[in-house]
Amino acid sequence: MSHGFFFFVIILCGAITFSERGSFLLFQSGKDPHPRLAKALRLVPAAVLPALVTPALFMANGYLDISLSNPRLLAGVVALAIALWKRSVFLTLVSGLTALWVIQWLTV
């Protein structure tokens, strides 16, 4: 694949993404979105976050690793416990990252 074609594809993908996202602003200017659409859009972050986090927790070196030797999985368990207990995004992030760093430091 030539460099010119590669950059053309990248620019085309960016234009398509921009037009998809911009269409909400362009066609909805001055109007409130339909209540069902607004409710669905509020649920998007809750659906996307587990999809991003789950592979990072359960995959190690490209393979499924559900064992006590997986530091990310152990840190995820700590973060989940803090999230359920305190209901704080900040404390969940801090406790999960701290647990990961401590576990990695102890296993080195």
TrEMBL record:
The keyword Transmembrane helix applies. Keywords: Membrane, Transmembrane, Transmembrane helix. The keyword Transmembrane applies. InterPro entries: Brnchd-chn_aa_trnsp_AzlD. This is Branched-chain amino acid ABC transporter. The chain crosses the membrane at residues 43-64, 76-103.
